[in-house]
Amino acid sequence: MGSVFKKAVTRPLPTGAEFITRQGVRLARWKDAKGKSRTAPVTIGRDGSERIREDSKTYFARHRDGNGVVVETSTGCRDESAARQVLADLERRAERIKAGLLTPAEDRMADHLTTPIGEHVAGYIDSMKSRGVVAMHRDNTRRYLERLMTDCGFGRLADLKRESLERWLSTESGKNRSARSRNAYRTALVSFCNWCVAVGRFSTNPFKGVPKANEAANPRRRRRAMTEAELTRLLEVARRRPLLEAQTVRRDKRKGEAYANIRPEVRRRLEAVGRERALIYKSLVLTGLRKNELTTLSIAQLKLDAPIPHIELDAADEKSREGNGVVVRAELAEDLRRWLDDKLAGLQEDARGKKAIPTGFPADTPIFDVPAGLLRIFDRNLEHAGIAKRDDRGRTLDVHALRTTFGTLLSRGGVSLRTAQAAMRHSDPSLTANVYTDPRLLDVSGALDTLPTLPLDPRPKPTRERAKATGTGDASPISVALTHGNGTKSEGIPDKTNDPSLHGAGVDRLAVSGLSDKRKEPLTIPVSAFPRIGAAGFEPTTSRPPV
Question: What is the pLDDT of residue 543?
Fold first, then answer.
């Protein structure tokens, strides 16, 4: 037979407590928040400090579980009769376990069903942290779960029902929330319930059968690639805009006018800021790095003096958590060397006259000081460069669109799909070909010119005399020759795959690395570490003609 009782607990001495002795017992006396005088015995805690001893505010139950072991369980009840009802329920469950009607795992699961949902969410987030999930993903998951618990009324695990989630998803769809955003909430809740099942807190996942929304049918952001002319204007504006804005009056009657003079040290600082922003854009578009990956790059990760210059990404900073290498073409490697040399020279100049002059950078020094508002800065640069953020197809430009530009330039340059996939560090080649390749910039017309000529009539073509005799040669033949100066010369359509204007005149082709791939089928083209890519044919991913 079990029992209910209030457990003795200790807590620190209240503020302003005084000690008194009554019948040989040392007591503490103080006034509570309502001004009522209270007393409690004084005891010594485990750390040797003085504490007061009081009874718990809620009742505990002592009983034998299904294995015959005496256990104490908090009922959470302040009323004794309610606590005895909880004790009776615990004893019935113990009898069912003894009779084989309930397993110990199911008994523990029943305890979890009544636990507040917030405790389970906190345990799930701690599990994600122990598995090395990045802080941003943990914060997003917590935010998604807390929003769902509030909107759907999930207070306990027993409240989790599929109908509630489907109703919420339908309501959010009516509020014009994107399919991708709705899927993010659904995925967070499904993953949370999968964890509850794995650790024995829940029997089955009630949301496992909830389908995902079709993101392809409801795209909110489709990025386009930038042309070489747009990239040139963007880099020029990014380099010059900080200084130009500092020289421009923004208020009063002189608004829009430029200052005549700026202090030399201010000019040098603003020029360095502009140069850094332009180099950030160039690094993103020539390496395919993501913004967060570029932000976390340090000096130690740059291998510019290697036979093939490259960047070694840390697994913790990469999206796939693999720790791949990224090839840096010679032109960009030289820009990075000059940038770091000039940055070090500036620090040495500022430290002149002091005791210690730096001779180099610490290994963990970031390569770039990527501003938090880079997206806003990028939009302003587009505006000043006269580049539309959204084109006639509804595709937009942002910082991540530079990665789309990287993939598109690889495809347009004739790089094979397998190699482009390795350069972009994708596990699925369809992601490289369909999402990160803008079909508008592909030279589909030039690719069609490489097809063979297939005549339908095997007979010889009629001469002009025969054409006149049959009445088909009265009109003068149409000349399709290209004119040069005063003369006319017939030319074939040039081979656009070798046109230097498509790759940048005087610039070597991009070299990309053959990195680890998640595809299980055998590769048809062996890829070695950091290979140099020569001219190669690349089948276009779409037949849409360029504009």
Answer: 45
Distance of CA 442 to the CA centre of its chain: 27
What tokens does 35 get? 């001004």
Position 107 scores a pLDDT of: 65
SS3 state at 72: strand
Backbone angle region of 153, left / alpha / beta, with phi > 0 → left and psi within -120 to 50 → alpha = left
| 3-class secondary-structure state, position 310 | strand
Query: Tokens 């399709």 correspond to what residue?
Result: 480
Contact assessment for residue 273 and residue 280, using Cβ atoms and an 8 Å cutoff: no
494 vs 37, which has greater pLDDT?
37
**Which range marks the domain in which residue 359 is found?**
228-397
Strand 325-327 with 302-303, pairing? unpaired
H or E element that contains 172:
helix 162-174
CA distance 64 to 231: 75
Same domain, 300 and 385: yes
The secondary structure of 258-277 as a DSSP string is B-S---HHHHHHHHHHHHHH
The candidate with the shortest Cα–Cα distance to 329, out of 273, 288, 374, is 288
Residue-wise DSSP of 6-55: EEEEEEEPPTT-EEEEETTEEEEEEE-TTS-EEEEEEEE-TTS-EEEEEE
Q: Are strands 25-31 and 18-22 parallel, antiparallel or unpaired?
A: antiparallel
Residue 129 resides in a domain: yes
- pLDDT average, residue stretch 347-362: 76
Tokens of 356: 């210690």
Q: Which amino acid is at 237?
A: V
State the CB neighbour count (10 A cutoff) for residue 426.
22
DSSP state of 484: E
pLDDT of 176 reads: 84
Last residue of a domain, one of 50, 85, 100: 100
- Model confidence, pTM: 0.59
* 300 vs 303: CA distance, rounded Å: 8
Whether residue 55 lies inside any domain: the answer is yes
Residue 56 φ then ψ, to 5°: -65, 155
